[in-house]
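Deliverable D5.2: sample structural annotation.
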Amino acid sequence: MIDYNSTKSFQANMLEVLDTGLEKPSPVYLGYDIQCKFAAELADVTALTPIDRCFVITDALVCDLFGQSFLAELQKHVSGAEIVVVPSGEAAKSWEHLRQLCERLLAKKASKRSLVIALGGGAIGNLAGMAAALMFRGIRFVEVPTTMSHMTDGTLSNKQAVNGAGGKNHFGTYHAPIFIWSDTRYLETEPSFVRKAGIVEGIKNALIDQPGLIPYLEKHVNPNCDYTPAALTDLCRKIIVSKLEILKKDPTEKHFGIVLEYGHTFAHAIEWLAHGKILHGAAVSIGMKIAAQLSMRLGYIDQHDVDLHYRLLDDILGLTPPLPDDIDTSSIIETMGVDNKKMGAEARFVLLNKIGSCCEGDSGDYLVKVDRKVVYQTLDGFIERYRNNPRGSRFSNSISVSALESPTRA
């Protein structure tokens, strides 16, 4: 049992190593202002198989903020290291940008002994991770996340992917980094709304499997999203640990680990339809509220449990992102039809049966089949209430499932 209520006082240059539980070690190095230790640690980890070339994959913004200082430290121990700048944001996760990056690395004489370093947020991590996985059937890479979301969530799943023409993450693979370097100093330049979007996944972890984290979140998270370096590092540590506790049960997220997708089926559709107007974490905050409403409609949880979602996301975190006017129930349903977790023609969702526990599905997994009519009506009611009053959309006034002619579970 994890003690989430105790806090750790992180000082500058203080380094903690967290075990990710993988058979082949892929640890998380966590601390504040630890960049000066990176190159020496890398040299030690790769001592038996030296690096011939090292490529730091990043975008223009991150390069301007951290790239040159990071490279200068890296070159103290790794000769031949260079920066490769790629496009930023979700649009970078395309087949064409992936092909271009792989060809550029080949032109720069990449080999089986080369190393890719992903310096940036989730899109950079996915693009660089996919390139590393494909080059010569897999070369080494390191994750250096610079956003709260990627530091506490994206880097831990070892999933690398690019988007298809109709949705997120349709094409990908598992390729674990040799380690993850999480320096919370990089988060100091992150806007508060981006930081909030990153904290959402921690709230999700608490709701689905780690309820002991909830009192800590209630006490330490605030709507202004301002933290001392030590407090921010401790918050990151708590969220990372909460996800690792889930991944230890299922590192590839194919059985129990699918609970980490709570709210994501709705969220991925909303994020895709918003065309960059909504960050991933913000979309997940909406998706979890919809999933909670659906869980209540099916009789798994009660209004008190739904209210807890809103308390954590609205009142404590202060995140109520607007839903673009052109997103409606039909477009969400259609986009969910090509979700990357799709298994056949059925509508299947991760749902709660109580705070800290998810429902088991009829197939022995954690995806519950739900009648499409129920999904449609839940979405319709939620969207109407959310647009009228996002903070008040927790109160359901739509038809109860018992009044529906069709069964709740197909």
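Annotation notes: The chain has 13 helices and 13 strands. Residues 397-410 have pLDDT under 50 and may be disordered.
The annotation will be released with the project's public dataset once the embargo ends.
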